[in-house]
Inverse folding.
């Protein structure tokens, strides 16, 4: 609700408070803000509308006088009246009850704050896990749709598993990673997150136990939790997930699936070693524990090629393999893929058709053209160089300004540096102080609820100038935030 996506017109003859009053009144009278809806605090409204707080106070006073809102100590300002309650003899539905009754769990409040703040143009995003807009190939993307091609551009629905053209090009792409697969074993999905949703809906039952590395991206999304499943943490070291106790834990806790990001792990940036990958496959094979391999960062190595994916070593159909274009080409395309045994892919494709009737045919065409034409290979070489330069800059800044207050890893690819603070202080206070200074952070407790000492630093989104400015200021805030 805090993203109001509207600003008063400063050049209008109508007073600013009057414009804000009319905007908020319309929200209430149209039923967009229903009874019980909490109005954002005055300071937040002033920031969103870019006006003085006194202007907000005047607008709210008008709404209070109209009997539309009410302020109560400890509760804040809430909507108490609207069109429905005025014209109806019965009370309108309390949508808050419906919202709270939904089966999908809400994001952590801090993640909601991050999602709402990321749209601000004045913020330095030090945690955002996507490519900077200046690294996205917008001009090339336009040319892809204008080029002559042997493949017809369809504007209709695609077949359940995705267009054959795209699945064939993905199979060829995966051969370069050592993965031998045919189109019937490939499902096109709308990004990696949908793959997780489909797996939770189509393959697992309520009460299943999902093993994952800790810290983990899974903790920051509620896909499995909302389906009534349990997450179980498996610790990591510098080589990746620790496998020594995995078999015993699987038997003790009836583990159903192991989710892993072996290459440039989110959020730690760790690259699982070749030896550790073999150990993981061996123990999961022995324990008959399926693996869901998330390889969305696998193309983003810097100096030298990385160990082959787990799927490349899988001869038993043990591994479900996820890939995506969101981290390398365009997050807006929303195109990814899931590779696995045909019965599994058949099952999940049926659910996908029931859910969204297939991913965008335009986006599928674009990705297939990028892969088939060789454009993607050229693009990824450029992206690797750009990311490496940004990583090197970030490490240089950390060496200069953070050596007294933190330690960190040196990632060999991907987006992330896992910054560990060696000074005590409230992470919540640090997050809020940084936000006031125009810096958006991703604290470690997003990925491990018990973590109070890490920050995920991403060098993929902020510009080099923003990285330098934001990190130098962050170092100062950390020192000021000491207990």
């Amino acid at each position: 609700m805090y993203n109001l996506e509207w600003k008063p017109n400063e050049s209008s003859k109508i007073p600013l408070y009057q414009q804000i009053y009319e905007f908020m009144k319309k929200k209430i009278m149209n039923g967009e803000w229903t009874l019980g809806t909490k109005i954002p605090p005055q300071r937040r409204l002033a920031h969103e509308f870019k006006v003085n707080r006194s202007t907000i106070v005047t607008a709210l006073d008008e709404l209070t006088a109209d009997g539309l809102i009410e302020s109560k100590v400890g509760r804040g300002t809430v909507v108490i009246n609207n069109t429905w309650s005025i014209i109806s003899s019965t009370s309108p539905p309390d949508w808050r009850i419906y919202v709270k009754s939904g089966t999908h769990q809400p994001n952590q409040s801090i993640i909601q704050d991050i999602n709402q703040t990321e749209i601000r143009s004045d913020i330095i995003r030090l945690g955002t896990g996507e490519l900077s807009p200046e690294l996205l190939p917008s001009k090339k993307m336009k040319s892809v749709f204008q080029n002559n091609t042997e493949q017809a551009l369809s504007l209709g629905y695609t077949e359940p598993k995705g267009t054959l053209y795209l699945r064939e090009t993905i199979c060829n792409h995966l051969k370069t990673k050592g993965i031998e697969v045919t189109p019937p074993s490939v499902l096109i999905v709308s990004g990696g997150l949908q793959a997780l949703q489909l797996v939770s809906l189509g393959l697992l039952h309520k009460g299943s136990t999902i093993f994952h590395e800790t810290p983990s991206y899974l903790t920051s999304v509620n896909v499995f939790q909302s389906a009534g499943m349990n997450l179980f943490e498996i610790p990591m070291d510098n080589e990746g997930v620790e496998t020594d106790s995995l078999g015993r834990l699987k038997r003790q806790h009836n583990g159903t699936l192991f989710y892993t990001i072996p290459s440039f792990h989110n959020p730690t940036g760790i690259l699982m070693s070749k030896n550790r990958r073999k150990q993981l496959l061996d123990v999961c094979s022995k324990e008959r524990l399926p693996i869901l391999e998330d390889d969305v960062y696998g193309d983003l190595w810097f100096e030298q090629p990385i160990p082959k994916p787990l799927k490349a070593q899988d001869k038993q159909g043990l591994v479900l393999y996820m890939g995506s274009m969101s981290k390398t080409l365009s997050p807006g395309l929303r195109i990814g893929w899931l590779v696995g045994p045909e019965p599994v892919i058949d099952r999940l494709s049926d659910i996908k058709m029931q859910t969204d009737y297939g991913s965008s045919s335009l986006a599928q065409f674009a990705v297939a053209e990028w892969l088939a034409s060789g454009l993607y290979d050229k693009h990824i070489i450029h992206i690797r160089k750009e990311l490496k330069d940004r990583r090197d800059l970030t490490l240089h800044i950390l060496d200069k300004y953070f050596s007294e207050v933190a330690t960190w890893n040196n990632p060999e690819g991907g987006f992330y540096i896992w910054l560990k603070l060696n000074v005590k202080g409230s992470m919540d206070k640090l997050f809020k102080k940084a936000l006031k200074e125009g810096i958006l952070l991703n604290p470690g407790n997003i990925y491990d609820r018990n973590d109070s000492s890490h920050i995920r630093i991403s060098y993929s989104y902020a510009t080099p100038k923003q990285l330098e400015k934001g990190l130098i200021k962050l170092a100062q805030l950390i020192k000021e935030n000491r207990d």
The chain has a mean pLDDT of 90. Residues 375-401 form the longest helix (27 residues). The chain is about 40% helix and 15% strand. The CA atoms of residues 166 and 365 lie 7 Å apart.
